[in-house]
Every structure is written in C-alpha cells, then in structure tokens.
Write a sequence for this structure.
C-alpha cells in the first residue's frame, strides 16, 4: 500500500499565511492543493476542484512534505549564463574589430559561427551575440546610402539636358 503523506493543522496554517503573501498564481494553486489535502480532501476531490490530475496533486504533496514551502514556490533565476568572461569576449571580438576597422562588412552569422567554434557547441539564436556586442560598446553601422564616388549635384545637373520651363 502506498505511503500516505499527511499534512498537519500547523502546516495548513503555514500554507494559508504563505498564500496571503504570494502573487504567483501557479504557486498559489500548488499551495491550495496541499492546503485542501491538509483539510482532509482526497487527491481525486482536489484534482476536480483545481482541474488537474490526482497524480499532480500527489506530486505537489510529496514535494511539500520533502522540501516544505520552498518546494512549491517558484525557483529564483539568477546567475551569469555567459560562456566566456568579459576579457575572453573582448579577445574574441578583436578579430572582428580589425575587419570592421578596415571597412569590411561583418555579419552576425559570421560572428555566431566563430562563437560556436570557440565555446564548442551551437547556440539557438543571435540574441546572445547582440548582447555581447552591446556589452562591448559595438553598434550597428550600415553602409551609407550614397555611393562614395557619386558625382556632386552640380555635376549631375550640368550633365543633364534640361529644358527651360
């Protein structure tokens, strides 16, 4: 017979206090499920009320028994998920800086390909490359809309056969 996880009345009070302060709806739903279990309802009854499965209710209760409130609250996302340090990024971008300085056009796909080779695996989007460029003060510069050898406006007028009006 499976082990029945019981929730005490003190734990129910603790959950009720936590539910008053929490703003995350999914965490509140989990806490409510455990609270209802502590009030004596079965997994099936709770599942019907919360429109989920009894297996999910059982999982949330086990998680609460094992980890307490922390197990049901949303996990905090922190940290630096970069693959290189700032200095390594700077060294990596130096090869592209020389190209850019000489006037060559650098495409993001070219940087992304070199980045993937450097870190040893492919990445999904260009977003992290744009963020890296932003961190290092790069900016998007498009080639001018005017040809550098275009004649002046006066020379163009003089070459046209204009009829007087």
């Amino acid at each position: 017979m499976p082990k029945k996880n019981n929730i005490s009345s003190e734990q129910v009070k603790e959950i009720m206090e936590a539910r008053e302060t929490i703003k995350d709806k999914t965490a509140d739903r989990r806490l409510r499920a455990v609270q209802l279990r502590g009030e004596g309802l079965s997994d099936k009854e709770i599942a019907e009320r919360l429109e989920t499965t009894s297996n999910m209710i059982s999982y949330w209760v086990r998680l609460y028994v094992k980890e307490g409130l922390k197990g049901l609250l949303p996990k905090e996302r922190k940290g630096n998920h970069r693959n290189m340090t700032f200095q390594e990024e700077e060294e990596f971008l130096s090869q592209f800086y020389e190209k850019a300085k000489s006037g060559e056009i650098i495409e993001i796909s070219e940087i992304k390909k070199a980045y993937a080779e450097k870190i040893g695996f492919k990445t999904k989007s260009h977003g992290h490359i744009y963020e890296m460029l932003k961190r290092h003060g790069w900016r998007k510069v498009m080639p001018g809309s005017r040809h550098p050898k275009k004649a002046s406006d006066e020379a163009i007028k003089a070459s046209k056969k204009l009829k007087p009006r």
